[in-house]
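Translate structure to sequence.
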């Protein structure tokens, strides 16, 4: 939801940290400069963070996603160009990530370019399809490309845990950085 709401640090309204002198500071007692720094304005360690208070944003009951892959033979140059042109002004409820990768086909043919478009739309599939067909008709988005799901399911989709249940993955506290 970064396109519509920005980063989580943009929504921090208070925080508590322990500074180098062992004092527990909140937004008021740490001052504007340190509060700005702990929200990403500085690249150093300013203390031990104890807590953040966030101003929450609205998460719709259902979101719609798609993951579409196209290859060199699908004229991906035009696809990438169009994506670059439309994303600046497209509906803020739509985020589309574009990934370019060289791939070698299974039959060991010449390396080709694969373009993967991964989307999040804060709304239903019908509205997303209408928007995409209006703004990005060359993609050829169809209902069968779209999946409607809850926000928790989307988090799993984005992390490539599509075959897992939300509670199983989200409650697992084991960190697998390279899985």
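Result:
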């Amino acid at each position: 939801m970064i396109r519509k709401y920005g980063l989580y640090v943009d929504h921090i309204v208070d925080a508590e940290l322990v500074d180098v002198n062992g004092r527990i500071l909140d937004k008021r007692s740490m001052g504007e400069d340190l509060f700005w720094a702990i929200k990403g304005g500085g690249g150093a360690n300013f203390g031990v963070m104890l807590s953040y208070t966030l101003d929450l944003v609205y998460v719709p009951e259902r979101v719609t996603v798609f993951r579409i892959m196209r290859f060199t033979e699908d004229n991906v140059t035009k696809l990438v160009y169009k994506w670059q042109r439309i994303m600046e002004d497209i509906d803020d409820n739509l985020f589309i990530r574009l990934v370019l990768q060289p791939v070698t086909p299974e039959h060991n043919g010449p390396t080709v370019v694969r373009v993967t478009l991964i989307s999040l739309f804060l709304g239903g599939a019908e509205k997303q399809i209408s928007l995409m067909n209006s703004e990005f008709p060359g993609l050829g988005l169809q209902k069968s490309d779209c999946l409607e799901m809850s926000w928790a399911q989307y988090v799993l989709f984005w992390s490539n845990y599509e075959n897992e249940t939300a509670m199983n993955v989200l409650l697992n506290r084991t960190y697998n950085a390279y899985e």
